[in-house]
Amino acid sequence: MKAALLRLSDRLYDGGAAEHGVLPAALVVATLVTGVVDAVSYLALNHIFVANMTGNVVFVGFALAGAKGLTVWAPCLAIACFAAGAWIETRLARGTPGQAKHRRLANAVAAHAAFVTVALILAAVEDDTTTATHAQLTAILAFGFGVQNAVVRKLAVPDLTTTVLTMTVTGIAADPLGKPTVRRLLSLACIFLGAVSGGLLVLHQSISAALGLALVLLVTASGLARLG
Fold first, then answer.
1. Which of 10, 122, 180, 206 lies in disulfide reach of 16, CB 3.0 to 4.6 Å?
2. How far apart are CA 227 and CA 23, in angstroms?
3. What is the pLDDT of residues 81-111, one digit of tens each?
């Protein structure tokens, strides 16, 4: 399996496996999670995002302008918890400055999986229509994404940010065709497929079903990253 993952790196990057190892494969799977969990947060948790913070800033503006169906507290809570997760991961990482890239990503994704597990349990045992449950799920899920994104930002693997697509779409349109185009299309496709899958599960099954899929994907991503 590791050999196949290294070949994927070679196909996506000029430096290939020598530069990024198995990280691209793990990041691709983590990108799927963004679509799945943001489907949960937007469709079931007060129309906010727990992974894409740009949307939350806009939602706060809409809510302050008086848009119906939007709140100020929910996107603000998501932004605050996301920032807290990123802050804490960065401070903890200072204690292990020599930690290998793949191991740091694996640990961050595993931590993210732990938070999704807690959210899954809450969604299963509590009334997922109440404001209190929505607030708990928002805080837990956004914190987990903050932890993960702090590491992804530090790794800086081109075009596989796992959450942000604005510059990705810009690159697809503005740059000549090549490996970067393939990477950007792959990121776009992963978030789209994750959103479709998460949306179908939320709308036709339950929040727990969608979070269960996210958990499986995160465990897979962490396992791939540990292959080094």
1. 10
2. 9
3. 999 999 999 888 776 665 688 889 999 999 9
Contact by Cβ (8 Å): 75, 57: yes
Q: Where are the chain's structural domains?
A: 19-226
Report the mean per-residue pLDDT for the chain.
Answer: 93
DSSP sequence for the chain: -HHHHHHHHHHH-SSHHHHHTTHHHHHHHHHHHHHHHHHHHHHHTTS--SS-HHHHHHHHHHHHTT-TT--SHHHHHHHHHHHHHHHHHHHHHTT-TT--HHHHHHHHHHHHHHHHHHHHHHHHHS-TTSHHHHHHHHHHHHHHHHHHHHHHHHH--TT--SS--HHHHHHHHHSPSSHHHHHHHHHHHHHHHHHHHHHHHHHHT-HHHHHHHHHHHHHHHHHHHHT-
pLDDT for position 96: 64
| C-alpha torsion sign, points 203, 26, 168, 64 | positive
C-alpha 120: how far from chain center? 16
For residue 142, give both structure tokens. Answer: 């956004």
Looking at residue 7, its pLDDT comes to: 86
CATH code of 19-226, in short, is 1.20.1250
